Amino acid sequence: MGLVVGITGGIGSGKSALTNYLASQGITIVDADVVARVVVEPGRPALEAIADHFGRDILQADGSLDRAALRKVVFADSNERIWLEKLTHPLIGEEIQRQIAASDSAYTVLSSPLLLEGSQSEMVDMVVVVDVPVEVQVARTMSRDSNDEGQVRRIIAAQMDRDARLAKADIVVDNSGSLGDLEKQAEALHARLLSLA
């Protein structure tokens, strides 16, 4: 298995813009957010456990998970968030490892907002942090997700502190500028990672 690069950053930092560029260069992106949705799809055991625990109101009419309703519950009560993480994190970890093992690009990216919080960091050889100031995170997330400011700040508070995240970075990509600035950094990052791979 080749070089595995973890890319992380708080909500609204621009991880997706960076990984979209790398994907356009033929790099396999294993996206933990996508994996997290896969493991709770209808027919998967995790969804049944979630519905048993939180009640059938947590499901949409078509039987799929109502993610917005679940998010409200788990960000309002940390015990419920811990319960959900104990259920889903091992399943997410297994699926991430399966996708990394199947990758055949020059290097593989694991994109995850929780890369540094749990055991996912053990799956990568190096860590890239996409960084923006907290106020930029708040503004971008509010305009993108139409969440109110209080909800966005609660999500940020639940994520790793910015300084702690930066302290664990092998490479930092500063995304406080324009999309053009980010693209220049993405090109340089890609070249550097190819040379390491």
Automatic annotation (TrEMBL):
Its EC number is 2.7.1.24. The keyword Iron-sulfur does not apply. It is found in: Cytoplasm. One of its GO terms (molecular function) is ATP binding. ATP binds at G12, S13, G14, K15, S16, A17. GO terms for biological process: coenzyme A biosynthetic process. It is an enzyme of class 2 (transferase). One of its GO terms (cellular component) is cytoplasm. Keywords: ATP-binding, Coenzyme A biosynthesis, Cytoplasm, Kinase, Nucleotide-binding, Transferase. It holds the Pfam family CoaE. InterPro entries: Depp_CoAkinase, P-loop_NTPase. Pathway: Cofactor biosynthesis; coenzyme A biosynthesis; CoA from (R)-pantothenate: step 5/5. It catalyses: 3'-dephospho-CoA + ATP = ADP + CoA + H(+). The keyword Ribonucleoprotein does not apply. NCBIfam families: dephospho-CoA kinase (TIGR00152). PANTHER family: BIFUNCTIONAL COENZYME A SYNTHASE-RELATED, DEPHOSPHO-COA KINASE-RELATED. Belongs to the CoaE family. Catalyzes the phosphorylation of the 3'-hydroxyl group of dephosphocoenzyme A to form coenzyme A. This is Dephospho-CoA kinase. It comes from Parahaliea maris. The gene is coaE.
